[in-house]
Amino acid sequence: MISIIIKSLIIGALGGGAIAAGAARMFHTPKYQSMGAFRTLGELNACEGDPIAHYSFGLGFLFNAAAAVVASGALTQDVLHRVVPNFAAGTLLLGGKKAENTMHDPGKMMVTGALSGAIVVTFLNTLASAIPESLSVIAQEILSPASSMMMKTVMPIIFWMAALDAGKITGIWGTVLGGLAQMIMGNAVPGIVLGILIGQTVEEKGYNQSVKVMITIVVIMFITIAYFRGFFAKLGL
Amino acid sequence: MENKEGTMTGKSAALLLTDKIFPLLVAVACAAIFAGTHMYVVHGVGAFNEIFVVQMLDEGLNGGDFAAAAGFATGFLIARVLEGPLVGLLDIGGSLMTGVGIGIPAMMLAAGFTGPINNFPLALLTGGIIGLIIGIVIILVRKLMPEGISASGTGVMMGAGNATGRFLGPLIILSAIQYGIPSGLGAIIGAAIFYKLDRHIAGGAILGAMILAGLVQMFV
């Protein structure tokens, strides 16, 4: 338990600080390279200036994360996407300060982000380890079949349909790479994802330099994986 | 640094906005996320990702086949790293949390390279180095290749990714019903309550199933 707390504090402080500083840089995109997500930027702007709005928004997602971590040990992406940036911004804005001098400042965001991150991650991780073993066994036995159905059937179909709906070239690339990925890796999704990226770029810009680089990477990746998973041996090569 | 923004105060802000600092920020974030995966593998808690993505890694941890996790997550990593410099915003969900947090550990574990995942300081260090490389690549791509890949490709991909998350709720309810009547009832009630409260029904379904099945287990 002690080691979980210590590790969580370190992880939370590091991750929270870096992510919150990256989020502050979002207000200076595209002039400066930032990291975060467009939806986070929109949401931070939506409650700009009001610390209570930031806190309650973050709290809503903290609740989701708590449910997920108790059930499966996964914190959800929202901890770093939404909870930490909003708590960090809310803390800075307390006392009616202006967003331009606080939330948009990567230095200040880094400090409050590290603080929020350490508290949030430690809270969630200790919360989950307080759950009795028998309950997490139940959760695990329910989640495993659900996620296996998800991975083997639902996800390939969703991604495949997205590729087919995105135009002829994307559909063809997605179908070919998806099928090959199913054969070689045992799951079609990675192939379809790459097919969508290649297909959409070709549709918009033609076979430019970066598409060629990407196709080369994909071919090497497929051949390497096929070799290590014994696919060629199965073919008798 | 020289063109200090009118709205920005303090030297720290100007310094933290430079291109040089960006790889460091990515490195620190990756160190934390990679160590989060260490937490999950060792303590069963603390991975910075959605339930279904973490379950993919779990499939590998239990069955030994990491191909799905590695393929899925590194696909996202490559896509996001190419897209990040193009739009000026690196999506930390696809690139760092899924790519670095799930894909790279999956590849390492598949190759029998368990040290960086089982050892906490080593996990921090490994994540940091990976992040530093990613950050440098992004700044380089930004400078050298302004005409990168199409942003609409990642749009399609993200749309599909988000749709996937929605399927988990119903799938959990189906699975809970298969597991037993109490867990099934709990999942139905939990999902209904969470839906009413505008929360993801997956969380409600699994919590409801755990609570009701746990209670029945205790008294029967």
Automatic annotation (TrEMBL), chain A:
NCBIfam families: EF_0832
TM region(s), chain numbering: 52-75, 111-131, 143-164, 176-199, 211-232
UniProt keyword terms in alphabetical order: Membrane, Transmembrane, Transmembrane helix
UniProt xrefs under InterPro entries: DUF4311
A Pfam family assignment: DUF4311
Translocase in keyword set: no
Organism in which the protein naturally occurs: Fusibacter ferrireducens
Name this polypeptide is given: DUF4311 domain-containing protein
